Amino acid sequence: MKKNSELQIIFKHLMRDPLGMIGFFIVMIIFLSAIFADWLVPYDPIQLNIKDRLQGPSWSHLLGADQLGRDTFSRMIMGGRVALQVALPTIFGAVSIGLILGMIAGFGPRWLDNIIILFFDTLRSFPTVMFALAVVALVGPSLSTVVFIIIATSIPTYGRVVRTQTLSIKSSEFILAEKSMGASTVRILRVHVLPNILGPIAVLVAMDIPTIIGLEAGLSFLGMGVRPPTPSWGVLLNDGYSLIRNTPWLIIAGGIPLILTTLGFTFLGESLRDVIDPKLRGKKR
Description:
Radius of gyration: 22 Å
CATH architecture: Orthogonal Bundle
Number of strands: 0
CATH superfamily: MetI-like
Number of helices: 12
Largest sheet: none
CATH class: Mainly Alpha
Strand content: under 5%
Structural class: mainly alpha
């Protein structure tokens, strides 16, 4: 009942906040269009139809066709599925590893904290593009390669936030009381520390999803991510950049979803931050 009531409070807050409501509906549209993409696309997104190449918008092709006659609208919708196929496992992997390492660093001995911080700093010392180039050169470009690259570069962000939150509650009275009663470290982390840091992590996740989707699109644009003919917003942007003198619709089909995704998740994250943070929630009221 408590969890249900908390979810109801968050949902009611989102519906009262105009930006939160807009963000929620944009995010829902993105998720639903990705889930039901097979039923929404009018054409096979990789099917060639040379006679329709570079055709403008029409009733048969809502956003025109690309240089190979493939339906741009279908490729845009399927590109959303590819974006979520990268974002969701990446977020899950990075948050899971970041949570474990961050809590161990914040709650463990000082020498272990220093080792984990050194690991975070080492990962962050590599520029993302250079790190991506090195990984792609070793294993080749693919969807799984993009997921690995983004997980590796995102772990330090979540790990540092979790470590900071853990350190802030490590000396709290209820933690000291649990220790005096003989509670194990695993129990303290699972029962007392983890619930207190999930809120800030949820806000950070909502803010980071568009960044991850944008990074996937950027890597695909540079040829280091999803490979053609797989539809991706980054591939659409790459094709549109090459054919900007012939048609603007490929750029529009690749750029508008990225803009809407960024706005939707940013609005949602801001609203979640307001309802999760008690100080900001009090100001809203």
